[in-house]
Amino acid sequence: MNICVIGTGYVGLVTGTCFADFGVNVSCVDKDTSKIEMLNRGEIPIYEPGLKEIVDKNINEGRLTFTTDLSESIKKSLVIFIAVGTPPREDGSADLSYIEEVARTIARNLNGYKVIVTKSTVPVGTGKLIESIIDKEQGEDHKFDVVSNPEFLREGSAVEDFMRPNRVVLGARSEQAIAIMKDLYSPLYLIETPFVITDIETSELIKYASNAFLATKISFINEVATICERVGADVHMVAKGMGLDNRIGSKFLHAGPGYGGSCFPKDTMAITRIARDHDYVFKIVEAVVEVNHDQRERMLEKIKGLTGELKGTQIGVLGLAFKPNTDDIRESPAIDIANMLMAQGASIKAYDPAAMENAGKAMSGPVKFCSDAYEVADGSDALLILTEWNQFRKLDLGRLKGLLKSPRIIDLRNIYDPANVKKFGFEYVCVGRGGRIHESPFRDAIETAAFQAD
Ligand code: UGA
Prior knowledge:
The protein has two domains: 2-198, Rossmann fold; 209-453, NAD(P)-binding Rossmann-like Domain (Rossmann fold), CATH 3.40.50.720. By secondary structure, it is of the alpha/beta class. The protein starts with a strand and ends with a helix. The chain has helices at residues 10-21, 33-40, 51-60, 70-76, 97-109, 126-137, 158-163, 175-184, 186-190, 200-231, 235-243, 264-277, 283-307, 333-343, 356-362, 373-377, 397-403, 418-423, 443-453, and strands at 2-6, 25-29, 64-67, 79-82, 114-118, 144-148, 168-172, 195-198, 314-318, 347-351, 367-369, 382-385, 408-411, 427-429. Helices cover 46% and strands 13% of the residues. The relative contact order is 0.09. Bound molecules: uridine-5'-diphosphate-glucuronic acid (UGA). Uridine-5'-diphosphate-glucuronic acid binds next to helix 10.
């Protein structure tokens, strides 16, 4: 089968490459010539573990090509995936102009029956919009079907998420289109992946509802963390105690500086917009967005609580990406917080294993970029952990103490054990774990019991 994937961002590139690995012939198309040239040279424009290896493998085996020729790719493909951006507009709604442009180009190049699939996260009703554009603009009367097949890939583990998904969601009006999509995904049947087959609108909403729900878990636990700080409880253990209930689940209950990235901030805003456009206020998700926004401010207060006035201080920042294993800094809490610190007169030294180049363009003031955590600590008034890269989890605390001007660690990702850090003589703050449990003689026993039950 020949397919094409339009858009070579995270979603398009991972989708196209993984389908090629399933044995399908894939053309990945983008109008950005320099990106296509880069991909044809075997260079990957994003940081995504494991991706380069399967891109190389599938190019070598002749199943994966990169091109700017959209018309030709459409003509030779049975299935066309749309994976172009849907950036947020001022009012939070998704900008569909790229999708509309692609739909018009598909219409002009229809030369037989095709399945047109939305992979980008699109507002409810976009499938219908694509159908109507193609109907209106195609010169002839070729049959086609539109399918909604939202992606659930996480940056940093996108390949694994594609190859071993929790589920595949397919929304369509035609059985023929569903049969073709099932054929495309047939390797996943072998690993018994559940398929959710539904109508287009339901499928489109499944994606928004999933991201909004995950964002809700994060804002929920961040509010619980604030309460923990006030009552002297430990959010880490609250999350464990809650998560052991299968109905709740332990994932996405890590308190921190709030969610970021290219998906949750955009999709939570978009679903509240979709609701309001249909005369409904989605109160819970509106609160989730507000809590997430306020969380940045709360983190700033926390930092100032330890350092005092920021003017004239030097803060050492560890982590700039919105999460580990990516170079993506879109809506990164780390960038927002570092910029807030600079706005209040602090100077910043920073290190991130992958995101420094991108961060350089997004920082509001001059930042001294360093080559490791110890260079960051050298001469700083406090060390601030903003992204939980694995390499920050086991730093040499004795060495850090010798390098820092004042032995202070602000751990906004809760990666250190407060009792242990304090033992080294650090002043230490984290999120929602200021309480009694760490002084409790039962602490180790409680931790062990919780881990065993996990
Ligand atoms: C998210 C979803 O997890 C994917 O399922 C979805 O496909 C994707 O959006 C998308 O819509 O394309 P991603 O943005 O890559 O994936 O990152 P996540 O791992 O979900 O993390 C999002 C943010 O939440 C990060 O800033 C992370 O630090 C934060 N987070 C996550 C927390 O603060 N606490 C948690 O417990 C989990």
